[in-house]
Design a protein that fits this description.
The protein is an alpha/beta fold. The protein has six helices and seven strands. The chain starts with 7 loop residues before the first helix and ends with a strand.
Length: about 260
């Protein structure tokens, strides 16, 4: 009786392999493609949620690959299983690379058009325990309080919810990275003055705010190398920034000009 099964298993294995790799390819691409479509539609994702979504997709992808390797490649050599993992990793990394290669650029920051415009880039804590929403509200309050104290030709705008500068570098004596990013921000927004600051809290719940001002190189043409951030004197805030008492105290200090002066 003729044996017709000699080549059938190979054909079956080939068909199963093709189906499996097609399935893994679709799985590897579906989440990055979905994120790309979401961003193309105008809903730009911040880096942290985007990274978390990719990691979640990677976790599911790893589980799927493990199942495939255990069921279909368990009897194969170790080298074959390693090649499968490498190929699967290449599929996923390739799809993520496509996502980042075709991500839409972030929307441009609003430009200012006054003669001495002030851009408030926000405040950052000395530690990671400060509420970012509260810090953004403090920047908005600062911009609002400054609006009534500047010439009519000058405007104040808060960019705290649109830009994130490494203001923590103000704690050190060297902050070339912050200076470089601030200069790029000032050019993009046409801001003449950039204001930010540091916020700290001691164990006794005493909050201190230290404002800082960035001086642009074109404001000191005779010594452009002096363009840098300059810190003002620390301001104690009773009750903390989240309390109405603390916010009212800061508004009073800003409106009376108590934020001026300080050290470099």
């Amino acid at each position: 009786m003729p044996n017709h099964s000699t080549e059938n298993p190979a054909d079956g294995d080939s068909g199963v392999s093709l189906w499996l790799w097609s399935l893994l390819g679709v799985f590897a691409a579906c989440v990055p493609c979905a994120l790309l479509v979401t961003e193309k539609s105008g809903s730009a994702l911040p880096l942290v949620p985007l990274t978390l979504a990719i990691l979640a997709a990677l976790a599911g992808y790893v589980v799927a690959v493990r199942v495939v390797v255990a069921e279909k490649f368990a009897q194969r050599s170790r080298r074959s299983r390693i090649l499968v993992w490498l190929a699967a990793a290449g599929l996923f990394l390739g799809s993520v690379a496509v996502l980042f290669a075709f991500r839409p650029p972030p929307p441009p920051l609003p430009r200012m058009s006054g003669t001495r415009d002030v851009a408030v880039v926000g405040f950052t804590g000395h530690d990671e325990h400060q509420d970012k929403r509260v810090l953004t509200d403090v920047a908005v309050d600062f911009a609002h309080a400054m609006t009534g104290r500047i010439p009519a030709a000058t405007s104040v705008r808060s960019y705290a919810d649109k830009v994130s500068l490494p203001l923590a570098e103000l704690q050190g004596s060297h902050h070339s990275g912050l200076e470089r990013k601030t200069a790029r921000f000032a050019d993009e927004t046409n801001a003449e003055i950039v204001v930010g600051g540091l916020i700290s809290s001691d164990p006794a719940s005493q909050t201190t705010l230290q404002p800082a001002v960035y001086v642009r190189a074109d404001q000191i043409p005779d010594a452009p190398e002096l363009a840098d951030w300059f810190r003002g004197k620390p301001l104690p805030v009773s009750g903390g920034l989240a309390s109405k008492e603390g916010r009212d105290q800061l508004s009073a200090l800003w409106q009376t000009g108590s934020c001026s002066g300080g050290s470099g």
